[in-house]
Specification:
The chain has about 260 residues and is an alpha+beta fold. It has helices at about 5-15, 25-40, 85-90, 95-100, 180-185, 190, and strands at about 15-20, 50, 75-80, 105-115, 125-130, 145-150, 160, 175-180, 195, 200-205, 210-215, 225-230, 250. The strands form 2 sheets. Strands 1, 2, 3, 4, 6, 10, 12 and 13 form an 8-stranded antiparallel beta sheet that branches. A 5-stranded antiparallel beta sheet has the order 8-5-11-7-9, with no helix packed on it. The structure holds 2-oxoglutaric acid. 2-oxoglutaric acid (AKG) binds near residues 145, 147 and 214.
């Protein structure tokens, strides 16, 4: 899809497909790197880890445990902008064109995150949520995430599911994050969910306020995806309990033409 059409679709629906952008060599390198980071073959310090619960239930996740030793069962790894391979991918020229068109010339990232559903056990289902709100501790809500499938993510097997157009309704709660059950029921989110199956290498644009979720991997293979939240570099951290976060700027070269 031409870039302009993809961006128009994203503005209207809260999501859009950019097509398969990562070739097999890139995917193999990123998958191998994800394994190396999970298995401690790359020093784990500097990354943020969250392991899946043994039950595979999101409700049973242990928050704050971080690195718990070598395992392919981590569900989330953040701060991947510190890794040269993931950093190179999130700054690729196609992403640069999309991000500059939506965000502007001066760009930072809020997070660069791997979401993984392990082959063994299938990971956990991620409930309906939005990526914003006071929980994010920012003076404005970022609006653009680029999500890259590192593995196939089929319908019923860990693909992203969305409520089309829901970004237009703003935040479901001031805190953001998980959407309360009553709000989901009122919106009939289960009936209206739209599955976005993706092939390995495919990239989706996702608006931060789009209601989205994902199921477990049912294929017996891992389902990994790398997602990056881009925002204006003018965005400020407003948290008070600790020193405000400083955000990593990206695309600091001349704008691509
Ligand atoms: O990859 C997934 O399973 C979902 C990603 C997601 O929810 C997010 O980027 O906020």
């Amino acid at each position: 899809m031409p870039l302009r059409d993809a961006i128009d679709h994203y503005r209207e629906h809260g999501w859009a497909r950019l097509g398969v952008l990562a070739d097999e060599a890139t995917l193999s390198a990123l998958r191998a790197r994800a394994d190396d980071i999970m298995l401690g073959r790359v020093a784990p310090e500097g990354f943020f880890f969250q392991h899946d619960a043994p039950s595979g239930r999101y409700e049973d996740l242990e928050f704050g445990a971080g690195w718990v030793g070598p395992s392919l069962g981590y569900r989330k790894i953040e701060k991947l902008e510190r890794d040269p391979l993931f950093r190179a991918w999130l700054e690729n020229p196609c992403f640069e064109r999309v991000v500059r068109a939506v965000v502007g010339d001066d760009v930072a990232i809020y997070r660069a995150t791997l979401f993984s559903k392990a082959a063994e056990g299938g990971g956990s289902a991620l409930p309906w949520h939005q990526d914003g709100g006071s929980f994010w501790g920012l003076d404005r809500t970022p609006e653009l995430q680029l999500w890259t499938a590192l593995d196939d993510a089929p319908v019923g097997g860990g693909c992203v599911e969305v409520l089309d157009g829901s970004h237009k309704g703003g935040l479901a709660t001031p805190l953001g994050g998980m959407i309360p059950r009553a709000v989901l029921e009122q919106a009939r989110a289960s009936e209206r969910r739209l599955s976005l199956p993706a092939r390995a290498g495919e990239v989706l644009l996702l608006h931060n306020l789009l209601w989205h979720a994902s199921g477990r991997s049912t294929t017996g293979r891992p389902r990994r995806a790398f997602t990056v939240a881009y925002m204006s570099a003018a965005t400020r951290c407003v948290r008070r309990r600790r020193a405000p976060r400083q955000f990593v700027r990206v695309f600091e070269r001349q704008p691509a033409d």
